[in-house]
Amino acid sequence: MTRRLIQLFFGLALYGFSTALMLRAGLGLNPWDVFHQGLAERSGWSIGSVIIAVGVFVMLLWIPLRQRPGFGTLANLVFVGISANAALSFLPAAQGLSLQIAFLIAGIVLNAVATGAYIGAGMGPGPRDGLMTGLVRRTGWPVRTVRTGIELTVVAVGWLLGGTLGAGTLIYALAVGPLVQVFLPMFSREEAKPPRSGDRLQNCAP
Hints:
Helices cover 73% and strands 0% of the residues. By secondary structure, the chain is mostly helical. The two termini are 21 Å apart. Residues 191-204 have low confidence and may be disordered.
Protein backbone atom coordinates (compact mmCIF):
# COMPACT_ATOMS: atom_id res chain seq x y z
CA MET A 1 0.00 0.00 0.00
CA THR A 2 2.82 2.43 0.83
CA ARG A 3 4.37 1.88 -2.59
CA ARG A 4 1.04 2.49 -4.29
CA LEU A 5 0.47 5.73 -2.36
CA ILE A 6 3.95 7.00 -3.25
CA GLN A 7 3.37 6.09 -6.89
CA LEU A 8 -0.05 7.77 -6.89
CA PHE A 9 1.19 11.07 -5.50
CA PHE A 10 4.32 10.98 -7.66
CA GLY A 11 2.08 10.58 -10.71
CA LEU A 12 -0.28 13.37 -9.69
CA ALA A 13 2.55 15.78 -8.90
CA LEU A 14 4.23 14.96 -12.19
CA TYR A 15 0.95 15.45 -14.04
CA GLY A 16 0.64 18.96 -12.63
CA PHE A 17 4.27 19.70 -13.54
CA SER A 18 3.74 18.45 -17.10
CA THR A 19 0.67 20.67 -17.38
CA ALA A 20 2.77 23.66 -16.34
CA LEU A 21 5.44 22.81 -18.92
CA MET A 22 2.89 22.75 -21.72
CA LEU A 23 1.38 26.02 -20.52
CA ARG A 24 4.79 27.71 -20.47
CA ALA A 25 5.58 26.31 -23.93
CA GLY A 26 2.68 28.29 -25.39
CA LEU A 27 2.25 25.99 -28.40
CA GLY A 28 -1.08 24.41 -27.51
CA LEU A 29 -2.50 22.37 -24.65
CA ASN A 30 -4.30 19.09 -24.24
CA PRO A 31 -8.10 19.44 -24.73
CA TRP A 32 -9.06 19.66 -21.06
CA ASP A 33 -6.32 22.19 -20.35
CA VAL A 34 -7.49 24.37 -23.26
CA PHE A 35 -10.78 24.47 -21.36
CA HIS A 36 -9.11 25.05 -17.99
CA GLN A 37 -6.98 27.87 -19.36
CA GLY A 38 -9.97 29.50 -21.05
CA LEU A 39 -11.93 29.46 -17.79
CA ALA A 40 -8.92 30.81 -15.90
CA GLU A 41 -8.62 33.69 -18.37
CA ARG A 42 -12.30 34.57 -17.96
CA SER A 43 -12.55 34.08 -14.20
CA GLY A 44 -9.23 35.49 -13.06
CA TRP A 45 -8.58 32.33 -11.04
CA SER A 46 -5.29 30.45 -11.16
CA ILE A 47 -5.36 27.50 -13.54
CA GLY A 48 -4.78 25.11 -10.65
CA SER A 49 -7.89 26.44 -8.90
CA VAL A 50 -9.87 26.00 -12.12
CA ILE A 51 -8.61 22.41 -12.51
CA ILE A 52 -9.89 21.64 -9.01
CA ALA A 53 -13.23 23.43 -9.53
CA VAL A 54 -13.87 21.68 -12.85
CA GLY A 55 -12.98 18.38 -11.20
CA VAL A 56 -15.62 18.97 -8.52
CA PHE A 57 -18.24 19.80 -11.18
CA VAL A 58 -17.32 16.73 -13.24
CA MET A 59 -17.65 14.53 -10.18
CA LEU A 60 -21.19 15.82 -9.66
CA LEU A 61 -21.91 14.38 -13.11
CA TRP A 62 -20.84 11.00 -11.74
CA ILE A 63 -23.97 10.86 -9.57
CA PRO A 64 -26.49 10.02 -12.32
CA LEU A 65 -23.86 7.75 -13.90
CA ARG A 66 -23.55 5.83 -10.60
CA GLN A 67 -19.78 6.10 -10.58
CA ARG A 68 -17.99 5.54 -7.29
CA PRO A 69 -14.79 7.43 -6.49
CA GLY A 70 -11.73 5.80 -4.96
CA PHE A 71 -9.06 7.38 -2.79
CA GLY A 72 -7.05 8.08 -5.93
CA THR A 73 -10.01 9.96 -7.41
CA LEU A 74 -10.18 12.35 -4.47
CA ALA A 75 -6.41 12.78 -4.41
CA ASN A 76 -6.48 13.49 -8.14
CA LEU A 77 -9.24 16.04 -7.65
CA VAL A 78 -7.07 18.22 -5.43
CA PHE A 79 -3.42 17.38 -6.00
CA VAL A 80 -3.06 17.95 -9.76
CA GLY A 81 -4.29 21.54 -9.44
CA ILE A 82 -2.03 22.23 -6.47
CA SER A 83 1.04 20.83 -8.21
CA ALA A 84 0.27 22.76 -11.41
CA ASN A 85 0.10 26.03 -9.47
CA ALA A 86 3.32 25.17 -7.61
CA ALA A 87 5.18 24.44 -10.86
CA LEU A 88 3.89 27.61 -12.53
CA SER A 89 5.20 29.64 -9.59
CA PHE A 90 8.81 28.92 -10.60
CA LEU A 91 8.70 27.87 -14.27
CA PRO A 92 9.28 30.85 -16.60
CA ALA A 93 7.64 31.16 -19.99
CA ALA A 94 9.76 29.54 -22.70
CA GLN A 95 11.65 32.15 -24.71
CA GLY A 96 12.36 31.23 -28.31
CA LEU A 97 10.97 28.46 -30.47
CA SER A 98 13.65 25.92 -29.54
CA LEU A 99 12.88 26.20 -25.83
CA GLN A 100 9.14 26.19 -26.52
CA ILE A 101 9.48 22.91 -28.43
CA ALA A 102 11.65 21.44 -25.67
CA PHE A 103 9.05 22.38 -23.02
CA LEU A 104 6.26 20.92 -25.16
CA ILE A 105 8.02 17.60 -25.78
CA ALA A 106 9.03 17.29 -22.12
CA GLY A 107 5.48 18.12 -21.06
CA ILE A 108 3.92 15.46 -23.29
CA VAL A 109 6.40 12.74 -22.32
CA LEU A 110 6.15 13.51 -18.59
CA ASN A 111 2.36 13.64 -18.89
CA ALA A 112 2.42 10.08 -20.25
CA VAL A 113 4.76 8.93 -17.45
CA ALA A 114 2.46 10.59 -14.89
CA THR A 115 -0.63 8.96 -16.37
CA GLY A 116 1.02 5.54 -16.28
CA ALA A 117 2.00 6.10 -12.64
CA TYR A 118 -1.36 7.20 -11.27
CA ILE A 119 -3.40 4.71 -13.29
CA GLY A 120 -0.93 1.94 -12.46
CA ALA A 121 -1.40 2.63 -8.75
CA GLY A 122 -4.93 1.26 -9.16
CA MET A 123 -6.58 3.51 -6.58
CA GLY A 124 -9.41 4.97 -8.64
CA PRO A 125 -9.80 6.95 -11.87
CA GLY A 126 -9.46 10.70 -12.12
CA PRO A 127 -12.67 12.75 -12.28
CA ARG A 128 -12.48 13.18 -16.06
CA ASP A 129 -11.53 9.53 -16.65
CA GLY A 130 -14.52 8.47 -14.57
CA LEU A 131 -16.87 10.67 -16.58
CA MET A 132 -15.75 8.95 -19.75
CA THR A 133 -15.99 5.41 -18.40
CA GLY A 134 -19.33 6.15 -16.75
CA LEU A 135 -20.80 7.44 -20.00
CA VAL A 136 -19.46 4.41 -21.86
CA ARG A 137 -21.12 2.07 -19.38
CA ARG A 138 -24.45 3.91 -19.32
CA THR A 139 -24.77 4.57 -23.07
CA GLY A 140 -23.10 1.49 -24.48
CA TRP A 141 -21.25 3.69 -26.94
CA PRO A 142 -17.61 2.90 -27.87
CA VAL A 143 -14.88 4.47 -25.75
CA ARG A 144 -13.44 6.31 -28.74
CA THR A 145 -16.83 7.89 -29.53
CA VAL A 146 -17.41 9.08 -25.96
CA ARG A 147 -13.87 10.31 -25.49
CA THR A 148 -13.84 12.15 -28.82
CA GLY A 149 -17.18 13.78 -28.06
CA ILE A 150 -16.06 14.96 -24.62
CA GLU A 151 -12.72 16.28 -25.84
CA LEU A 152 -14.14 18.05 -28.91
CA THR A 153 -16.66 19.75 -26.64
CA VAL A 154 -14.17 20.94 -24.03
CA VAL A 155 -11.56 22.04 -26.56
CA ALA A 156 -14.12 24.02 -28.55
CA VAL A 157 -15.53 25.75 -25.46
CA GLY A 158 -12.02 26.34 -24.10
CA TRP A 159 -10.87 27.90 -27.38
CA LEU A 160 -13.91 30.18 -27.45
CA LEU A 161 -13.05 31.25 -23.89
CA GLY A 162 -9.46 32.08 -24.90
CA GLY A 163 -7.57 28.84 -24.24
CA THR A 164 -4.46 28.04 -26.28
CA LEU A 165 -5.20 25.72 -29.19
CA GLY A 166 -2.21 24.97 -31.41
CA ALA A 167 0.19 22.44 -32.85
CA GLY A 168 0.87 21.12 -29.35
CA THR A 169 -2.79 20.12 -29.03
CA LEU A 170 -2.57 17.93 -32.12
CA ILE A 171 0.83 16.48 -31.19
CA TYR A 172 -0.49 15.62 -27.72
CA ALA A 173 -3.54 13.90 -29.18
CA LEU A 174 -1.41 11.76 -31.49
CA ALA A 175 1.46 10.99 -29.12
CA VAL A 176 0.11 10.55 -25.61
CA GLY A 177 -1.81 7.30 -26.16
CA PRO A 178 1.16 5.36 -27.59
CA LEU A 179 3.45 6.83 -24.91
CA VAL A 180 1.13 5.79 -22.06
CA GLN A 181 0.98 2.33 -23.63
CA VAL A 182 4.76 2.19 -23.16
CA PHE A 183 4.89 3.57 -19.61
CA LEU A 184 1.83 1.99 -18.01
CA PRO A 185 3.28 -1.56 -17.74
CA MET A 186 6.29 -0.11 -15.91
CA PHE A 187 4.02 1.16 -13.12
CA SER A 188 1.27 -1.46 -13.08
CA ARG A 189 0.85 -3.53 -9.95
CA GLU A 190 2.36 -7.00 -10.15
CA GLU A 191 -1.02 -8.71 -9.85
CA ALA A 192 -2.42 -6.76 -12.80
CA LYS A 193 -1.98 -8.13 -16.28
CA PRO A 194 0.02 -5.91 -18.59
CA PRO A 195 -1.86 -4.68 -21.67
CA ARG A 196 -1.56 -6.87 -24.73
CA SER A 197 0.35 -5.39 -27.62
CA GLY A 198 -2.81 -5.07 -29.69
CA ASP A 199 -4.82 -3.31 -26.99
CA ARG A 200 -5.50 0.37 -27.45
CA LEU A 201 -5.25 2.44 -24.30
CA GLN A 202 -7.55 5.39 -24.05
CA ASN A 203 -6.09 8.18 -21.95
CA CYS A 204 -7.85 11.23 -20.64
CA ALA A 205 -6.74 14.11 -18.56
CA PRO A 206 -7.35 13.45 -14.89
